[in-house]
Design a protein that fits this description.
Number of domains: 1
Helix content: 25-40%
Bound molecules: coenzyme A
CATH topology: Aminopeptidase
CATH architecture: 3-Layer(aba) Sandwich
Strand order of the largest sheet: 1-2-3-4-5
Number of helices: 4
Radius of gyration: 13 Å
Strand content: 25-35%
Length: 111
Amino acid sequence: MLIKYKKSYEKFAMGLLSFMPKEKEIKVLRNTMKNYETDENLQLFLWKDEEIIGLIGIQISSDFIEIQHISVNPSFRKQGIGKEMVRSVKEQYPDKELKANEHTESFIEKC
Ligand SMILES: CC(C)(COP(=O)(O)OP(=O)(O)OC[C@H]1O[C@@H](n2cnc3c(N)ncnc32)[C@H](O)[C@@H]1OP(=O)(O)O)[C@@H](O)C(=O)NCCC(=O)NCCS
């Protein structure tokens, strides 16, 4: 189930974000989190089954949404969760086109 990020999930979110190659450095990671917390055009979602196991972060524009970050806990990969998160985010914004950025495009193309 896709849930909206809130501050109490910060540690889970940072852990998941750090699996993205660009987010390895703690300074970069903190800055990314700050952007998601302060910029209203950026939205962070988590994927929760019994626990939080995935993250997807998007930038919302007038006619499209761009997937900025996507990550799944390594123990739960290759079970379709990544694709399910992309599908669920698209469902939240049915009128907008879905795009990727340079850091997410290889997986999004696969979806
Ligand atoms: C990318 C990621 C979110 C996919 O999550 P997932 O839950 O395993 O994805 P799904 O189970 O829905 O899909 C698995 C498929 O995606 C493929 N895949 C995984 N990572 C990929 C990548 N970086 N680029 C393209 N395809 C990728 C798998 O090889 C698998 O292919 P198959 O169906 O032909 O076997 C996960 O591998 C991850 O967290 N990676 C680290 C973070 C990252 O690099 N994110 C940016 C990705 S561009």
